[in-house]
Design a protein that fits this description.
Elements: H1 10-23, H2 36-43, H3 47-60, E1 63-66, E2 70-73, E3 98-99, H4 112-123, H5 139-153, E4 162-165, H6 168-179, E5 185-189, H7 194-202, E6 206-210, E7 212-213, E8 216-217, H8 219-224, E9 229-232, H9 246-259, E10 262-266, E11 291-296, E12 308-311, H10 317-323, H11 333-344, H12 347-374, E13 378-382, E14 388-393, H13 399-408, E15 411-412, E16 414-416, E17 420-424, H14 430-448
Parallel strand pairs: 3-15, 5-6, 5-9, 9-10, 10-11
Antiparallel strand pairs: 1-2, 4-12, 7-8, 11-12, 13-14, 14-17, 16-17
Helix pairs in contact: 1-3, 2-3, 4-11, 5-11, 6-7, 12-14
Length: about 450
């Protein structure tokens, strides 16, 4: 039975009540609905009121009409909710007292007051809020980035080659969209960045993993591959932290020229180098036209702003303009203009120096505590750059079981390939890192017996 009141139109009330009966399965699939005339007579309402309710239900797919037969409830739309399994875990949402995530920065290091002042300054400028912006990003910001990349990373590029992106995945999406007809296979370092390999596979690319040494990937294995795209982290190897020597870089560029291939140079954290000056990028070697350069502000400035960029070879610019002939930049206009002012007025280079100095201290604190307490039971796989240290236990411990032991003690660590442990330090203060590292060492000793 349906009831009506005066607060809503009658057709809306009837629609809502019939819809509720269908959702609750009081009206089941293929049940015949009362005719317009019958329902109108039963409730002393007009046939137009009933028809309006039925029409809305038809539009939304709850019922359908059959010629000369009437209206029927559509097939079952709502199934009874399955009871959640008892072993369902909400572990990913758990907050840990000590989180060694390898890409965090200390939020207190973000220059909030300066950024806010420059943001307000940007708002007071004549920004085109009523128009779509350049697909590649603000030209004035790209000019500043081109100058910065030339002086700090040795790149040879013009602003026309730079495309601002909303993070690494956006940059990789653009690149693969450009090269999807060029090759079906990608060569990459073994044990490389998980997000990159996942995106390659989602785009349908086959992967050829290249074995690693202290000098980077094996050129002999690469030459046997049919891949015409190579994904590299040459300044600071993603897994073992090794840098590719200049001689090897030149040979890789020669391989790319010879085979008409392209190289993605992921320069994800080269600004955070603690033992030596940042190594110049491959992109600037011999004015080559083979390297696609990826840069990001996530490791040195803020992962939350989602600002990255890629530098395309000149030979790919025309194809880029053909593929991306629509406005789509994922970075807000105000953030772009604020970043331009941040770089132009010298704040960015000062911030990089400050962050590098602080994280060098954190890196050395963590390394010293590890070596002093469990140095005989670990091998340092990656250190000296970036925001994490990777260790390999040499005492035969089960890394995955140790990870669970850490979680029970309020510690979140990150394992790789079930053999290695990544310990990030960027999100800590000096005192909190000492506390976290000592707690980690205590759990290690308990677990190792």
């Amino acid at each position: 039975m349906y009831t009506f009141h005066n607060k809503k139109p009658l057709s809306l009330q009837l629609y809502e009540q019939i819809k509720a009966d269908i959702i609750s399965n009081k009206l089941k699939a293929n049940d015949k609905m009362p005719s317009l005339r019958a329902l109108a007579l039963d409730y002393k309402i007009s046939k137009t009121t009933v028809l309006n309710a039925y029409n809305q239900l038809c539009i939304e797919g709850y019922i359908h009409s059959a010629p000369k037969k009437g209206f029927f409830v559509s097939e079952d739309l709502y199934k009874p909710k399955l009871q959640a399994k008892k072993n369902f875990s909400h572990e990913d949402k758990k907050t840990y007292k000590y989180d060694f995530f390898g890409a965090n920065l200390d939020s207190r290091d973000f220059p909030k007051k300066i950024w806010q002042r420059l943001y307000n300054k940007a708002l007071n400028q004549d920004l085109e809020f009523g128009r779509y912006q350049d697909t590649q990003g603000l030209k004035s910001l790209r000019n500043e980035l081109a100058n910065y990349l030339e002086s700090s990373r040795g790149l040879t590029c013009k602003s026309e080659q730079i495309i601002l992106c909303s993070g690494f995945s956006d940059a990789l999406f653009i690149t693969l969209r450009l090269l999807k007809k060029h090759t079906k296979r990608v060569a990459c370092e073994e044990k490389t960045y998980r997000v990159a390999t996942k995106i390659f596979r989602e785009f349908g690319f086959g992967l050829d993993e290249m074995p690693l040494s202290d000098s980077g990937i094996s050129l002999k294995v690469l030459e046997k591959s049919k891949a015409k795209l190579l994904y590299l982290t040459p300044s600071h190897g993603y897994f073992n932290g090794s840098s590719t020597p200049i001689a090897k870089k030149i040979k890789l560029i020669e391989w790319a020229k010879k085979t008409k291939s392209f190289i993605i140079e992921d320069d994800y954290d080269s600004e955070l180098s603690y033992y030596n000056k940042p190594i110049p990028a491959m992109q600037g070697i011999n004015n080559n036209d083979q390297v696609i350069y990826f840069g990001t502000l996530s490791k040195s400035f803020s992962p939350a702003l989602r600002i990255a960029y890629l530098v395309l070879p000149i030979c790919l610019l025309r194809k880029y303009k053909e593929c991306f002939d629509y406005p789509f930049s994922g970075i807000s206009l105000c953030n772009q203009k604020t970043l331009e002012l941040f770089i132009k007025e010298g704040y960015f280079t000062r911030h990089i120096r400050k962050v590098r100095t602080k994280n060098r201290k954190l890196h050395n604190i963590l390394k010293a505590i590890l070596l002093e307490n469990i140095g005989e039971e670990i091998e340092l796989i990656k250190q000296g750059c970036g925001l994490n240290i990777i260790i390999k236990p040499t005492n035969g411990m089960d890394v995955k079981k140790f990870e669970q032991k850490c979680k029970k003690n309020g510690i979140k660590i990150y394992t790789r390939f079930d053999k290695y442990i990544s310990l990030g330090f960027g999100g800590f203060s000096e005192e909190s890192l000492k506390e976290a590292a000592r707690k980690f060492v205590n759990v290690w000793r308990e677990f190792s017996g």
